[in-house]
Specification:
Blueprint: E1 14-15, H1 21-37, H2 50-58, E2 62-67, E3 70-78, H3 82-85, E4 92-100, H4 109-123, E5 128-134, H5 138-146, E6 150-157, E7 160-168
């Protein structure tokens, strides 16, 4: 199935607060270790310091979803994204750091968070929801394509290539 789906009824992230930084960083580190153990090339171990997350949280970029066990999932929304997409004035919202706790893997939470971001983007008047991933991560490419994203371009970064993807907002 491709394209947008109806949002998961329980997905209603809230803006992250300073007291969420430790949990966001811990989730990121656990996923970095999990990917490294499986040879997945997306986020190198230790590549996102807690201090950078704290600054992004203070800037209102992170959204979190908790359950009884703690942080269940989160994502970062930015606009524009000149670091990866360059100077582009196309009305778009950019998803970064989409993370789902391993205990919620396979539940559709990642896609539900992307659908939730769709709603935020439409409300902001954006025409596109955009994201990126390392070109070497073919699994993530397949996942994003199954969610209705299409490759727009590839861009060289120091030591790796990034696939830029987007999907139109209905």
């Amino acid at each position: 199935m491709t394209g947008p789906i109806r949002p998961h009824p329980t997905v209603d992230p809230r803006p992250a607060r300073a007291d969420d930084v430790v949990a966001i960083h811990a989730l990121r580190r656990s996923l970095e270790d999990w990917m490294a153990a499986r040879g997945l090339d997306q986020w190198p171990v230790g590549s996102l310091p807690a201090e950078r997350i704290a600054a992004q949280v203070a800037d209102g970029q992170w959204w979190v979803l908790h359950d009884d066990e703690g942080l269940r999932g989160c994502l970062r929304l930015v606009s524009p994204d000149v670091d990866y997409w360059g100077e582009d004035d196309t009305p778009a919202l950019y998803v970064h750091g989409l993370m789902v706790a391993r205990r919620a893997s396979g539940t559709g939470l990642g896609r539900a968070l992307a659908e939730w971001a769709d709603g935020r983007a439409r409300a902001a008047g954006a025409q596109w929801l955009r994201l990126d991933h390392r070109a070497s991560n073919e699994h993530l490419d397949d996942v994003y394509r199954s969610w209705g994203f299409q490759e727009v371009a590839r861009t060289d970064r120091p030591g790796f290539v990034v696939v830029l993807m987007q999907r139109p907002l209905p």
